[in-house]
Amino acid sequence: MRMNRRTAIGLAATGAVGAATTAALVAQGPESHPVAAGQHGSAAAVPFYGDRQAGITTPMQDHLHFVAFDVVTTKREQLVDLLQTWTAAAARMTAGLDAGTLGAVGGAPEAPPDDTGEALGLPPSGLTLTVGFGPSLFRDAAGKDRFGIADRRPEALQELPRFPGDAIEAGISGGDLCVQACANDPQVAVHAVRNLARLGMGVVSVRWSQLGFGRTSATSRAQATPRNLFGFKDGTRNLKAEETAALDEHLWVPGADGPAWMVGGTYAVVRKIRMLVETWDRTSLTEQEAIVGRTKGEGGPLGRTNEFDEADFALQGADGEPAIGEVAHIRLAHPSNNQGARLLRRGYNFVDGSDGLGRLNAGLFFISYQRHPGRQFVPVQQKLARHDVMNEYIRHVSTGVYACPPGVRAADEHWGATLFG
Amino acid sequence: MRMNRRTAIGLAATGAVGAATTAALVAQGPESHPVAAGQHGSAAAVPFYGDRQAGITTPMQDHLHFVAFDVVTTKREQLVDLLQTWTAAAARMTAGLDAGTLGAVGGAPEAPPDDTGEALGLPPSGLTLTVGFGPSLFRDAAGKDRFGIADRRPEALQELPRFPGDAIEAGISGGDLCVQACANDPQVAVHAVRNLARLGMGVVSVRWSQLGFGRTSATSRAQATPRNLFGFKDGTRNLKAEETAALDEHLWVPGADGPAWMVGGTYAVVRKIRMLVETWDRTSLTEQEAIVGRTKGEGGPLGRTNEFDEADFALQGADGEPAIGEVAHIRLAHPSNNQGARLLRRGYNFVDGSDGLGRLNAGLFFISYQRHPGRQFVPVQQKLARHDVMNEYIRHVSTGVYACPPGVRAADEHWGATLFG
Ligand code: HEM
Ligand code: HEM
């Protein structure tokens, strides 16, 4: 039986949907359907419970609602309680159920509903909810260990350094906690974030949030490579779900790295990158392709033909110059120039209206997952920030880094279980 | 043959796609598929050419990118030229082709491409582009008749009055021209607006723009009623495409109204309405339903059962009070309380991140089409602004009114043909 919120209302009314039922429903979670560019993603559910959090190597959905929270309580129990409540709600919502057992129209009519209702009747839509903990959760800006976890902060979880050219706005950066909500229907992603925010009232406060669409990566070989707002295929050489050995090497925190509570987890880096699309659009095709190091149509590396051909950085053109320039984006970012470092990119395009100066406020909401930001994202971005000609067309305006714990395996575990013990 | 941008590249390279071909392709434009809530809209094309502009009574798509432009030239010919260029690009893009005949990867490599590329390979996705002219196009704020059309301004095209409670921001209001881009893929809607902006460089400048998702109305009886961010079904009693007599009475400008250039056109009112969803979510189900005048789950009028039951405003509850309160939204907005006035609503939900105060910056981007705003939108909104209890939970933050000319019937006509003669 595939169950959606509409069916759930009936069951909730008869008291038939409890935590155990939810777990059972979620455990039988359907297969994930690969998504091709220009084809809408699946309406089915992605399993919530598992050794790894969903929303990382699971196929990219069409829409993102990313949210970062500040914790406003100083009471550890309240925070742990909320993480428990959130986990239960996340298990339900990812299965296509209401956030709470009474639902949007159940419960006492004189009480506020325990779901906000805008996803009533909508299918699970591939919803994934992925949680992360920021450095400030372990020790706040004033150096205070609010929740008695300062000594559990992973060595790998450091605030990112300031990179050359950064134009970071503090109000849309950082946060004690983050949740990446991805779904094939934006209403479902927005509904999930909003209900988490509602459940968190008094304990957390929304610090910033961002909507995205259209994907700027593929996380599976079965997904056609989508395009970013520079019009180029993005994600061709992404770390993909099928590369299981590489995932172990570059993505998931192994026992050897520790701390114990992060084993099987990973680290998220987010960067909101404004793209000056109007300037880009006045640049010649040759120049655009030289900046990226790939052709615009097919997406093949310069000097070669097909999208998935290996880049040949030694190749020279008729003029004796390298086919892929010394400061082309794909050369600078290539593992061979970065001690073998690879990233799992999982970003989205965004348009936040216009900027009041006649330009669209558009760009790429970059998200990468990696085993150790300081050895992967940071050195690559150091290189890009210094040399990438693309910098003339982009501005990094927000930044965040978060420790994403391993998955919740069953209904008696929760998002904070490994961290708070 | 259904043609997408990928096929088009090949054809463009061989020179096979000219204006005539485009027109032919568009004329054979496929059927439109009705969209149910929770089901993704069709990837097919909606015909561009016709007596009426598409994007009004055609089925609502899943995504919106609305843009308003200021005209920055004072030369009438430049403006008319742009309207011609835009119309050709709109005919192409709605058919799933590149904005220009050379395309994103055709043309001279040392020139900027004549399409920005991010929709390469994507199907038409139901894209519609609907143009409107604001009052300031006819006479600017300084009273100047920049383009020699002041005497062509329709009597019905007046700036909207200030309503009680309005919190209008000038920077996201008005504009000389507007384009409503709707599509079932946000990347396709964004691509269209961006290419129109690109083509308009030096002639127009983006004043403001807004993304929306999820629909807050149905425009056809075949569309299931979607939900707004208060969690209620929205669009139940909307003016629908099937009500052909009512469309003639309430929507399309008849010969009797004039001016001649607007016959077969209509007027758009847009209002960006911020919804204080956090406050709403703390309100009881009873109170929410009383404010709207309908049940949250089924969406039936209070005191009756099913969504499409007629509201009975005389009905009393056991307590002797009216089942639908005196100031319930659906009573205040009902045609029987507004000299029979009806609107075709075609709005979208929006979330613009958060507001820096711990709240989502969410709401409803209200769009209504009508034959005469002063006799339809304005009196209804006067009543709502004064009496609607919903006002405690909403703020109107932007406003615009635009004259939308009749449709472009063939490739030798253009968006400005009736106005500029
Ligand atoms: C708006 C900003 C950016 C744009 C438009 C962009 C665009 C692209 C494109 C078109 C490709 C080639 C296709 C592919 O393999 O995915 C690519 C590759 C790549 N990018 Fe970016 N990128 C941006 C920012 C970044 C950042 C901030 C990083 C990390 C610090 C990054 C790391 C990479 C990596 C690792 C590759 C693959 C290189 C290879 O192995 O060939 N990019 N990017
Ligand atoms: C955020 C603001 C608003 C919300 C949440 C909202 C919500 C609703 C809902 C839930 C309904 C009932 C279902 C339906 O028939 O569509 C409705 C009906 C209606 N609304 Fe609104 N509305 C809003 C603003 C407006 C505005 C600004 C106008 C016009 C000035 C308007 C005009 C109408 C009309 C004409 C109806 C149908 C009344 C009838 O014939 O029964 N609404 N609205």
Automatic annotation (TrEMBL), chains A, B:
Query: What is the protein's name according to its record?
Result: Deferrochelatase
**Dyp-type peroxidase C-terminal domain ranges (all copies):** 225-408
| Family indicated by similarity | Belongs to the DyP-type peroxidase family.
Matching InterPro entries: Dimeric_a/b-barrel, Dyp_perox_C, Dyp_perox_N, Dyp_peroxidase, EfeB/EfeN, TAT_signal
* Keyword entries, A-Z: Heme, Iron, Lyase, Metal-binding, Oxidoreductase, Peroxidase, Signal
- Where the record annotates domain Dyp-type peroxidase N-terminal, the positions are 53-213
Which cofactor is essential here? heme b
Q: What organism is listed for this UniProt entry?
A: Virgisporangium aliadipatigenens
Which positions carry the signal peptide feature in this UniProt record?
1-19
Entry cofactor note text? Binds 1 heme b (iron(II)-protoporphyrin IX) group non-covalently per subunit.
**GO biological-process terms attached to the record:** iron import into cell
**Ligase listed as a keyword:** no
Q: Which GO terms describe its molecular function?
A: ferrochelatase activity; heme binding; metal ion binding; peroxidase activity
